[in-house]
Amino acid sequence: MLFLISPAKSLDYDTPPHIAEHTKPLFTHQSSQLMEVLKTKTPQQVSTLMRLSDKLAGLNVARYQAWSPRFTAKNSKQAVLAFNGDVYDGLSAKTLSEQQLVWAQAHLCILSGLYGVLRPLDWMQPYRLEMGTTLATEHGKNLYQFWGSKIAGYLNERAAADTSPVVVNLASEEYFKAVDRKALKPRVVTCVFEEYKAGKYKIISFMAKRARGLMVRYAIEKKLVAVKKLENFDAEGYRFEASVSEPDRLVFRRRQAA
Asked: What is the average pLDDT score of the chain?
């Protein structure tokens, strides 16, 4: 199985990585093309384009100017250790062993507006470019058109080694839209996480994000390679609900946070 997650807006480049092993991003040519466009933007343009405060816009313009197609230990950090949001709180990659991170490298992909797809140990330079950004390039008016079927093509290559290839979608709608479903060959299984509130079950965004990270953590710890095994996920009070699930839509619920 191949697990997909979204990136995070917050980054941590202050904490030193606890492992040295790393790989280089796969789509550096495309990332460089995007950076050529981003480097022409003023702070005001970035602020408007990404709906950022002046301070954040200035920070990211500086990041664009500093970005280089050469990745080094000084300007980069392993992606799964650099992202710092709700999903990554649940995943807690900083507490995974090197052996566990190597397993994750073979089974986890992080979708990215700038990098397309990142493996956990890919070196990543700091950036801000959400997949839904309407950044115009020679390939179209937004990043979905820029990436086209490239991400799906890569996932097809990764899944080709499996006899029954499955993509487990733990990404947000914004990011999974970047995967061309017509071009994608593996079966897709989506996991949904719901909370009991005001008399009914509903998806609460920040809790669902953390749960996605917890699910990836669970898969890494158990070295899961079969969809059926996902049903045993029980971190922080979640339980699989067969009555509201479908073969390709697994629903996990909890009445209160553990």
From this structure: 96
